[in-house]
Amino acid sequence: MLNERALLDGKVAEIIERGTILFGTTGDYRPLSFCEPDGTYWGFGIEVAKEIASQLGVVPEFRKTSWPTLTADVLTEPQLFDLAIGGITITDTRRETMLMSDGYLANGKTILCRASEASRYKSLADIDKPEVRVMLNPGGLNEKFANENLTHATIIVHPKNEEIPILIAEGEADVMITEITEAPYYVQTDPRLAA
Q1: Shortest CA distance to 169 belongs to which of 184, 185, 191, 188?
Q2: What is the pLDDT of residue 2?
Q3: In terms of pTM, does the model score above 0.70?
Q4: How remote is the C-alpha of 38 from its chain's centroid?
Q5: Three-state DSSP class for 115?
Q6: Which residue from 99, 97, 123 is spatially nearest to 111, judged by alpha carbons?
Q7: DSSP 89-140
Q8: CA-based angle 133:143:161, to the nearest 5?
Q9: Consecutive sets of 10 residues in the chain, 195 residues long: mean pLDDT of each?
């Protein structure tokens, strides 16, 4: 069996020979990875991807993946992309099935809610009530967190992560489970929201 270093060396040689590095990213997780309607990607993870490509002397190419299909997309043969990037939390489960880099951002769970109701949600117990509608995206750690910690709240799974903050602001749900890296972006861009 090839060791990990030999595997990586072979992959890097393949990327350099091809002249492009293929990055899988969800494109729905501001400010780490977002895809505009015209197909332009931006965010911190995208900048990291561009720097990796630059260091290898190749062109970066971004391919869409999703939180529910991320692991399967990484493991698919032939590979859909060389690396996945854009706010992917390192977990034991993911480490068991794929190679993962060291972490480069600290993160943690928080919520988005309407600014007018921010004083209502001071603890997890304040959220875990049947009358509180919690919206989240499918397949990621936010869904797992909600399922493990919110046994009384009304959970609403919405397929498009980037739409959830607007839906919270418009009153379609009360709370979004998210991370401390994502929440400030929405609070800064929409005064109707608080974290």
Answers
A1: 191
A2: 44
A3: no
A4: 20
A5: helix
A6: 123
A7: ---HHHHHHS--PPP-S---EEEEEEGGGGGG-SSHHHH-STT-EEEE-TTS
A8: 80
A9: 58 91 92 93 94 95 90 87 85 81 78 96 96 91 90 95 95 94 91 96
Whole-angstrom Cα distance, residue 148 to residue 144? 6
Q: Do 150 and 181 meet the contact criterion of CB atoms below 8 Å apart?
A: no
Residue 170 CB-half CA count within 13 A: 7
Determine the pLDDT at residue 96.
87
| Structure confidence at residue 140 (pLDDT) | 78
d(CA 46, CA 112): 24
Residue 31 structure tokens: 């400010």
For the record, the structure tokens of 67 come out as 């939180």
Contact 190, 167 (CB under 8 A): no
> For 138, how many CA atoms within 13 A lie in the half-sphere containing its CB?
9
Q: So what's the pLDDT on residue 6? A: 56
- Tracing tokens 């509180």 back to the chain, one arrives at 132
- Residue 112: phi and psi, rounded to 5, are -110, 140
What DSSP string runs through 132-158? -EEEE-TTSHHHHHHHHH-SSSEEEE-
Q: Would you state the pLDDT for residue 4?
A: 57
Q: How far apart are CA 182 and CA 178, in angstroms?
A: 7
Cis peptide before 138 (omega within 30 of 0): no
Calpha distance 129→132 (Å, rounded): 5
